[in-house]
Sequence to fold (218 residues):
Amino acid sequence: MKTKLDYLRDIGLDDILSDDLVRKIKVEEYEKGDIMEMEAFQSGKVWKILEGQAKMTIYMEHGGEYYGDFTTGEWMGVAACLIDLVGTVDIEAKKKTKVIVIPLTEMIRNHPEVMQHLWEKIAKGSALEFVRVLGGTLAKAVLSNEGYFLKYLSQNNMRIRFTNTRELSELLNTNLRTLQRIIRKLREDGVIEKSRNEIWVVDKEKFEAALISQTEKF
Fold:
């Protein structure tokens, strides 16, 4: 089993951090549904996902809501450490998830010798974070529930595995009844098939036609 130093070695930090900084860096594990951090933008920390998947939800003061899904190898919270962002942010584990938590703001302020080794990774992490949040928010905003479901299916190689339909509805941010109606319709149309814990495409041509028709509505 990997140790904290093993993960730091993977990032390229194992031999440049002081013992004090190493102690402040944490490796944490969460079960599906756990809240990993509330008000994350205020913490000065960043999270690199070592295993699993997490969802970031941003609640802005004006009432807007934005979100993005993050997976293994990706960073969360980078942008908030670099610029002032207003809003409340929750991070939730979407499945069993392991992260390494780094006090980035403190490192920027007090350890420039460390940051010179991290800036390229942090810049890429910040850019990807923006893409994840913007992509997740826009996809949900411009597509119907059916279109969003089809897009998610496409992004997962035409096959989705899940524990139960309620779990899938939470993952897709779609009402359970609405999702059940979508699945029933697509099965009747011969687009997909479903077992107890899996949904897959049975006719790629019908699937592509259905996805295009949903996209063209917006």
Notes: The two ends are 48 Å apart (CA to CA). The chain has ten helices and eleven strands. The chain has a mean pLDDT of 81.
